[in-house]
Amino acid sequence: MTPELMEAGARIREEAAKRQTTTGLSGGRAASYSRVVVPGELDVAHGAILYLDDITVSFDGFKALNALSLNISAGELRCIIGPNGAGKTTMMDVITGKTRPDAGKAFFGSTIDLLRLRENQIASIGIGRKFQKPTVFEQLSVFENLELALKADRGVKASMLFRLDSEQLDRIGAMLNLIHLKADAQRTAGLLSHGQKQWLEIGMLLMQDPKLLLLDEPVAGMTDEETERTAELFLSLEGSHSLVVVEHDMKFIGELTQGKATKKVTVLHEGSVLAEGTLAECQANEKVVEVYLGR
After folding, report:
1. Which string of b and e fits 238-251 if b means at least 16 CB within 10 Å?
2. Are residues 118 and 231 part of one domain?
3. Confidence at residue 8, expressed as pLDDT on a 0 to 100 scale
């Protein structure tokens, strides 16, 4: 072999080694050989959009989360249940950067280390959270609430000159249809029912183009009809979005998992995963029955 070929071969091997160890916010883990990982860009090529590993959070000696591990697939709708104090809210606080864990790892996709980011950064990369109590601008119309939620430059000058284009108008119109509020577009948000305010807030989150939605007791206080419509809404989002639904309403959980024999439900207890499987499997689990469902 000539010296020129030997030198060229060495260069190729060196470049391949660099590609193989390309890392973004990956905590030093190797990236896929055939893909270039862009720092800060969501990578779900391995299937998971959210990965929690041995997350522990203590408050004055009390472990709100105790070595919690959870894996959510891209496009999945995962229901999470458990008794009060199981750690459900603390888990969402960790994912969104509100609470820093004492130990463990939290990744968005395979490359974005959530524990290195602040709350506003986590929101901007595509994680949206809905709290139990709906938060909307009650003095504004439903349409104006959705308009404000659009991704746009919110500087003073840009806001003064901002005008909706046809694409944005179409998008708001489609969202009004999706959240069942087209007939109420010009209605003041403060006059909506509790359930309608919940839908409006979900619509506002969706206007931000989130890849992962965390929904904390979204049907609390809703009528049966509103609950049914909310289930239809969430099922329509499955696949295009990943959803983590924390809920106590077992009938609602049943509606979300009906006809989905393989859909997972996760049961938390004392800060850890007590059980995970289909709803039927969890309902038949003796430990779940004892600590949560009751006999």
Report:
1. eeebbbbbbbebee
2. yes
3. 46
Q: Which two tokens stand for residue 135?
A: 């938060």
The range of the structural domain enclosing residue 16 comes to 1-25+33-39
What number of other Cβ atoms are within 10 A of residue 260's Cβ?
13
Rounded Cα distance, 190 and 199, in Å: 13
Q: Is the pLDDT of residue 103 over 80?
A: yes
Q: Could you say which of 208, 236, 269 is where a domain stops?
A: 208
Q: Does residue 214 sit in the same domain as residue 232?
A: yes
- pLDDT tens readout for residues 13-27: 455 444 444 434 444
Amino acid found at 156: V
Q: What is the mean pLDDT of the chain?
A: 85
Looking at residue 240, its amino acid is S
Same structural domain, 193 and 251:
no
Domain count for the chain, please give it: 3
- Give yes or no: residues 214 and 203 share one domain: no
CB 288 within 8 A of CB 275: yes
